[in-house]
Amino acid sequence: MKYLTLAEILQPCVGQSWAVGAYDTCNLEITQAIVDAAEADLAPAIIMIYPNQTPQTEWPTLIRIIEAEVERTHIPAALVLDHAKTIDQIEAAIELGFSGIMIDASLAPLDENIVLTRRAVDIAHAKEVSVEAELGHVGQGDEISSEIQPQANLTRVDEAERFVYETGVDALAVSIGTLHGLYRGTPKLDFERIAQLRKVCPIPLVLHGGSDTPDSDIRRAIETGIDKINIWTDVRIPFLQDLKKTLEGPIQKIEVNEAFRAARMVATEVIRKKNMLLGSAGKAAQYKY
Fold first, then answer.
1. Span 229-261, pLDDT tens digits
2. Which long-range contacts (CB under 8 A, 24 or more apart) does 93-99 make?
């Protein structure tokens, strides 16, 4: 299975006012929703595995599922390990065929983040695998009020310029006011910070916390310089809500496959709307894959 690297799938949208959706998956049905939406929309897709959701022992099985579904639909796709914390995780992912890894040392001091990211880049680039890193820290929406997010968590422009130069990273996740998951309050994105980061960073910029963020803010972030949007909660919740609704019926009449198939269709429609919002629909023709 030949995936596009993270750098390859992001390069066409840099400076073009559209972005690629990056969707986490943990099972067959979510994977099918991602690839079915991409096929229907003629869109590229970044498919991610998150270690906190999928234990490392289960990666090989999930990867086989992803490979089968991508081959079935023949879409331009990258396979990325999301929020890796250790070099061991990165080495395991590369061995299994991931085309991109995201190293998250965002809670470490700047110098430590640079050292760990540089090591990840050296390991990954030797195998022609791309690397995304995070500078600043995108917290959890259920832990921090979006209205009082500490300024210290936001990405500093001067540090970003140094970080990109010293690490050789292929994409940079920046903290500009979004949070992971659902918000407690109204998010306040720092669009001027995005514009400044865009000026000093010659690589794709990534927005984590794409769920529960107003569509207008997503569009403005993309038009200001964001190239990759990470989305999970906005897919997970409708999927589970539909499954829950089905399970409220007479349990003896519910077929497992039918219950999951219905939830999969709901997730597919959510992802299709995201692809339209991001502007990635119709962009598959821009890739050689």
1. 999 999 999 999 999 999 998 999 999 999 999
2. 93/59, 94/123, 94/124, 94/127, 94/129, 96/59, 96/60, 96/63, 97/1, 97/3, 97/63, 98/3, 98/49, 98/129, 99/3, 99/4, 99/5, 99/6, 99/129, 99/130
Active-site residues, by number, are 82
pLDDT at residue 138 in the model:
75
Q: With 70 as the cut, is the pLDDT of residue 132 above it? A: yes
Residue 170: count other Cβ atoms within 10 Å of its Cβ: 24
pLDDT tens digits, residue range 168-194?
999 999 999 887 666 556 778 999 999
Q: Compute CA 155 distance to the chain's CA centroid, rounded to the nearest angstrom.
A: 18
Which one has a higher pLDDT value, 171 or 138?
Answer: 171
Q: Given its phi and psi angles, is residue 205 left (phi above 0), alpha (psi -120 to 50 degrees) or beta?
A: beta
* DSSP code, position 284: G
- Start-end of H helices in 187-255: 191-200, 215-224, 233-247
CA 289 – CA 271 distance, rounded (Å)? 22
Reading the block at residue 36, the tokens are 């079915």
CA distances from 213 to 66, 94, 139, 141, 181 (A): 27, 32, 14, 11, 10
CA distances from 227 to 67, 118, 240, 264 (A): 24, 22, 28, 26
What's the confidence (pLDDT) of residue 76? Answer: 98
Determine contact, residues 198/224, Cβ cutoff 8 Å: yes
**pTM of the full predicted structure?**
0.94
* Sign for the pseudo-dihedral over CA of 112, 114, 118, 124: positive
